[in-house]
Amino acid sequence: MIILYDHIISLLIVGVIVLLLFNVQQRAQQSSIERTMMYNAKKHTLDLASFLERDLANAGFETPPVEQAVLEHNTDADGITDTLQFWGVGASGERTRIAYGVSVVDTFRTTFRQMELVLPLYELRRYERRGPDFVRAGGSAPTLTRFRVDLRTSGDGVADLETVQRFRLRFANAVLPDFNSDKYLKGYRQLHWGATVSSPSLRVTYEF
Amino acid sequence: MTETMLAFVALLLVIFFSMSQQRNIVETERELASIELEVLANAVGSDLMQSIAAMPFDAATRGEEATVNPQNPDLNGLTPTAEFGAANNCLVADECDDLDDFDGMGPAIVGFEVGRDEEDNPLTFNFSVTGEVTYVDENGVPTDARTWTKEVTLTVDQEVTLNETKYLLAPVVLKRRFSPQWGS
What we know:
The structure holds 2 protein chains of 2 kinds. Chain A has 1 helix and 9 strands, in the order αβββββββββ. By secondary structure, chain A is of the alpha+beta class. In chain A, the strands form 2 sheets. In chain A, strands 1, 2, 3, 4, 5 and 8 form a 6-stranded mixed β-sheet that branches. Chain A has a 3-stranded antiparallel β-sheet with strand order 6-7-9, covered by helices on one side. In chain B, strand 1 and strand 2 form a beta hairpin. At the A-B interface, helix 1 and strand 9 of A face helix 1 of B.
């Protein structure tokens, strides 16, 4: 009886230890995956920021003063800039019309202030006008949670299509695992970017 | 007795292994938080660098009253290194009028709003930014002599109060070189 009792206790201890090790190992593996995801998201965020800043810095390229350089701009009720169109520099290095379109491509659920929310994920699509049509030429991954471009004057006042001299850019990129739409995520990380970009071509006076 | 000792050693090994893994997990969490802050710090520095890029190269090349210009490209007319920054002691970009005014800048505190907290207050991370400007020679080496290239270095670090945790493991350093934009 005592031997049987010893065996049962040993088995219990071994079971607990194996479970503990399995749990720790699984958490370590998850942590390693999170790290890889974060580095990918960081690279994507910095690449997107660099590409957007270069694009916006070229806005109005070779546009005569009598012509409008920024052609279309709209920010929706959720604060997402869904349309932006301007004269810029295309892949060929020539003056081209550039258009941005931002739309919801996926959703995920999370809890905020004890309320369950369905949060949209956006994708930025960039187009260049080649001939009569706009052709897809770059964009972001479908992980944006915020994208806003405000038109500003050189003194940082609010500007319209005719008076714009700078762009105030803000976006956030969610760090998310591959998942099915509408998945519940208890917590998620975001990488934020913001910069105010001046375009020399949109300046009224030139300084050197 | 032997069995008890073996069991004890096995238990110790498991505890050490578990603790080591837990420490790795905590370190990874810190690293991830640092990356989030690193991207923000990069944005803050990049934004300021954009403002700096819009500044005239030198006080002597500024505006219509410029004394050094394509007709008079005189290096000796540029601001000497000894007179960088201190002239108007500018602490933030708005108070500077040309590139070298940013030398010795700060630490200037710049906030970056990332959203709203549970009570709908802005959630802002603060960064301290310091600036350094030097002339660089044709090999890209900093020099005290006047040249047609200035290098601006911005160091962005997380600004924390006594009760806050510093997540940014190392300051972000941004460098950019500028020359007068005279064109051809």
